[in-house]
UniProtKB/TrEMBL annotation:
Species this chain originates from: Cohnella fermenti
Keywords: Glycoprotein, Signal
Name of this chain's protein: 6-bladed beta-propeller
Annotated Gene3D superfamilies: TolB, C-terminal domain (2.120.10.30)
InterPro entries registered for this protein in UniProt: 6-blade_b-propeller_TolB-like
Length: 314
């Protein structure tokens, strides 16, 4: 479904939700679902606040396994990076313990990034609350301190801190809750896109943090973004997913305008009241090779929905 679009393009972006895609075994449940990634084999990794913090699903939605009990309280940002030799790793952020870590797909921790070495900015560990992470083609690691000091940090592939930018404020070069980020490594030079959530915009930078452009638009509370083809797909915490062109002009919104995000109980809306063809609080998403959209939501029980382009099955 689409809520609306422009220039007649919305008709090309109609989707149907696949009911009960994620099949959980009896006795296993998830918490707030915050992140999602897919590996080369098609397995989906769901980062959530439970003892099954990294929950792994087969392409058909069957639960496979889990790990990551240590992230039960702080699971937040997640990305998957494939290195030059083909080995894949998961990078995660922990808002409770103030750390970023690199793991093998089966959970072995191989790199840890603690509080950035800036004692004037981070006089105590709890001042650092990283919300998202992504990795450039050269291995540089970018971290959004979205719940702490509103900085974006850059590290090299070995975890050596290199620089930071942003910080609290309302100026053009300042950020107000840089909640999510995505590194577009498809061009000659990577571009770092940041979801500046409370400013309701996106900001783009070059690999060394030079500000390129601020992108404003029809956004309520954008959490993150993913690029696929010449489109951006944006999970908006206030009840919808937006699809934009390369200039952040909205083509379509997915999710019926039911206003659940204005309900005093939000996000703890009872599952019986979850809209079948809409959202409560989209937090992250993934677009697979077939154009299916997987959306995870910030609700206490966790929620994962798969959306199929109209006319497709699977």
């Amino acid at each position: 479904m689409t809520e609306h679009g422009q220039d007649g393009e919305a008709a090309a972006y109609t989707y149907t939700p696949l009911r009960d895609w994620a099949r959980m075994p009896e006795g296993i449940s998830l918490g707030y679902t915050h992140g999602i990634a897919e590996d080369a084999a098609g397995l989906l990794y769901i980062f959530n606040m439970s003892v099954h913090a990294v929950a792994i699903f087969a392409p058909d939605g069957q639960f496979v396994s889990s790990w990551g009990e240590a992230y039960a309280e702080g699971a937040h940002g997640l990305c998957l990076h494939r290195e030059e030799n083909g080995t894949e790793y998961l990078y995660v952020t922990d808002i409770a313990r103030g750390r970023v870590a690199k793991h093998t797909l089966d959970g072995e921790e191989v790199l840890t990034l603690g509080v950035p070495p800036l004692p004037d900015i981070y006089p105590e560990p709890r001042a650092y609350r990283p919300t998202d992470v992504d990795v450039a083609p050269n291995g540089d690691i970018y971290v959004a301190d979205g719940y702490g000091q509103y900085l974006v940090h850059r590290y090299d592939r070995h975890g050596q801190w290199l620089q930071c930018w942003g910080g609290r404020g309302d100026g053009f070069d300042k950020l107000h809750e840089p909640h999510g980020l995505w590194v577009d490594g498809r061009g000659v030079e990577p571009i770092v896109y940041v979801a500046d959530r409370r400013h309701r915009r996106f900001v783009s930078y070059d690999a060394e943090g030079r500000l390129l452009q601020a992108h404003e638009g029809d956004f309520r509370l954008p959490c993150d973004l993913v690029g696929a083809g010449d489109r951006f797909y944006i999970p908006d915490l206030n009840g919808r997913v937006s699809i934009t062109d390369a200039d952040f002009r909205v083509i379509a919104h997915l999710g019926e305008p039911d206003g659940l995000w204005q309900d005093a109980r939000w996000p703890a809306i009872p599952p019986a009241e979850w809209p079948e063809r809409g959202f409560v609080s989209p937090h992250a998403l993934h677009v697979d090779r077939s154009g299916h959209i997987y959306v995870v939501e910030w609700v206490p029980q966790g929620r994962i929905t798969k959306w199929l382009p109209t006319g497709r099955e699977g």
